[in-house]
Request: fold
Amino acid sequence: MPKRKSSESDTQPRKSRSDKKTRKSGVETEKSGNSMKKLLVEDPNQFSDLWELSYFVVRNDGGAVCLVCRKVLPSIIKSDIEQHYLELHKEQFSDCSCEDKIEILKKLKNSNCLLPLLVNSPGRQKPPKTVQTVQTELAEKEITSVERRMSASYAIALRIAQEGRPFTHGYAIQESSIEYARSLGDKEMMKDYESLALSKTTVSRRISELDLNIERKIKSQLENCQYFSLCLCEDIRKNHLMIFARITQSDFTTNEELLHLTSMQHFLKDDSIVDFLEQTINKFGNFLKCSGLSMSRRKFGISFENLLQNCGITCPKYPFKVEIETLIGKAFENNQTIKRIEQIINLIMEMKEPSGHLKAFAKETKMVYRQLAVHSKLLWLFQDNYFEKIFTSQEDIIRYIKINDEPGSAHCREFFEDSHFLSELALLADLTTMSEKLNRNLQQPDQCIADLINNIRGFRNKLQILTKQIEKNEFDELPCCDQLAKMCSVNLSEFTPIIQGMIEELNNHFRIFFEMDADIKLFENPLSVRIEYQRPELQFELCYLQADAVLIGRRLRGIEFFKMLNQEHYPKLKDFGLRIFSMFGSSKIYETAHCIIRSIASVYSSKTTDGYSEIVRVGTSTTPLDILELVRNRKSLVKLQNKV
Reply:
């Protein structure tokens, strides 16, 4: 066999046992002749500063933190840290040189706010705290706790205003919170709840401060907005006059706010109402950006129109709500049915011992009748649809009349035996139900005038179809009439003139909507309108718009389409979309304000109407509030006053 070639290692002499490496406390010494070299050896169970550059990790209390993914590594064993780096980040930094890694490490440390973590790294000692530093930290901690308590006080006051609760409701919230903390056995939580300032005076002051903050923000929004519309509401139920604003910014964000609320007793004439409207708007700005004026009940006469134009209000004026007592009650104004229903209502309220369903009906009727204004003759019948309640309770009423022979009850019994009266009662109940459904649709939030017009147009078409169905004795949409038809033979075709009168009243009341038909169609679908029928200033942009293949391929309509338009290419069309979108189309804020006023009036009966304004504005506002900023501004003001 051939001899094995001797390698270089074979020629070297073997080392003796005394020449082997010896380890002692992480230091390895090697004896080679008369020289000794000391080499540092890494302990895999202790964190090394070299790992920061090798694996991009820093030391944390009891563990490590990866600077790349910010993951906390509970272990500081080298194998675990190395495995994390190899699995997640090796490919990302495989081509980096040592100089590149040093620069990357510096950037990672600066971008990640890890200074508190770096203080705990080996070799870095915390500087000793002076007495002044300790006092400052304690003071900052105390300020933070005070701010939290004040913020909670403001938040609870805001909630009380939104719910229309009395100011003393803060006591109940505080006591309930303390009892909750006591049941949990948490003494710290109990102390926090006990330190909350929720007295009646404090809640009232908090709401006033929130109101001032909201008022300043509303003024700023009106100054910077693209368009705004106004809503003038005359509430005869509570004798209030309210002014709302729908504010629209250039990015199509909107919010609806209460500008002012006052009593109507000083505003009985048109000129006084116009003067009040002008004073309110001058407080916040002017009418230059006003896109529309909506009103609840008032009819637009020539004198009122001239007064508005003299004040610079040349925008469209339109109603935003359907008054059921006006729409239906006018058709039955000279009818005996309403008078008979009032006699039945009086009989129910004077019942001595009603039972069952009739007892609850009588109690509710007394409560509602007591809260109504004297001049609202038809309002209390239509607002809760008493026609339907009487129709469904006719058997109980007849049974009560038979058992208790009270004076005047015989006439009411004859009413229920008259088929003509029952037919009118059933028709009134069904028409009132349809009108209530329409008003619920009008109360949906985030609606503009296009949604309002579509709801009114749909209701008018429904009435037109209804006249044809009544002539054929088809009562699919009239449940009370359908129930009556099953009880006896009825012929409702004689009531079609009443429905025709409702259609005419609807056309007269909302005639401006039909004049704006071209603008609404353009707003809903600008790609399908005929250009020659549109405004002259928009026709050229519409020519390019309807030829744009990209826009044609988008299946967007309405406001979403106008949000997508390029401001540089279609500035006039975008401005048109903003103006239409800024016009009031919902009565949601009006109904919310009315509910808050009704709750407040039941508690503070002696409070004046002007005192409701700040509560209702805070309760109905959709403007975002930074309560912590409000708290800090208030504290800064208090410090400044103390220095002075």
In short: The chain has four domains: 50-119, 136-262+586-644, 326-515, 523-581. Confidence is low (pLDDT under 50) at residues 1-42, 112-129, 370-376. The two ends are 110 Å apart (CA to CA).
